[in-house]
Amino acid sequence: MSSWQRPHWQQILIVADYYLAALLLLIASLVKLWTTPEPNELLQALYELNFLPFSAVLFLERWQAPLELLLACAALYGWQAEKLAWLLATLYLLFTGALALASQGYLLLPIDCGCFGNSNGGNPALLLITRNALIALPLLFAKGSIRSLTLHSFLRKHC
After folding, report:
1. Contact 112/122 with Cβ under 8 angstroms?
2. pLDDT digits (tens, 9 = 90+) for 127-148
3. Among residues 35, 68, 82, 116, which is most buried (max CB within 10 A)?
4. What is the pLDDT of residues 63-77, one digit of tens each?
């Protein structure tokens, strides 16, 4: 896209969604790193339902927050934005599937996803599933022109 063209409104919405997904991931990872380490209830539920082996639970408990932090920072910078958009969408959709499995079909009952630390109540599973799907699906339509609206692109042009 040349510098004289204005971005299309759909492109702006996709870029805004991209940065929203990255920012939420950044906040969630920082909260996980700063709070006292407690077992993630979602991972425990998936383990108890025999969807995850214990070694996977241990790996995710140990490395989920640092990997999310790394992914969020790379996405906020805009490096390889199209690939990271797909990776963010995949991560949100995998998390959505995990919520659906852990809820066992009881979508109106509260579930603690562990995204922003462990809470006392939690949100209904349907709300979390809907939120994640609405964040993830537009990211699948990120085209090559998303790259021109990132911080990485801006710094390369102006510095």
Report:
1. yes
2. 888 999 999 999 988 776 677 7
3. 68
4. 988 999 999 999 998
Instruction: Please give the structure tokens belonging to residue 90.
Output: 């995949």
For 97-119, give one letter per residue: b (16+ CB within 10 A) or e: ebbbebbeeebeeebbbbbeebe
36 contacts: CB under 8 Å, gap ≥ 6: none
Helices (H), the chain: 9-34, 41-48, 54-77, 81-103, 125-139, 151-158
CB 52 within 8 A of CB 44: no
Claim: this prediction has a pTM higher than 0.70: yes
Is 36 in a helix, a strand, or coil? coil
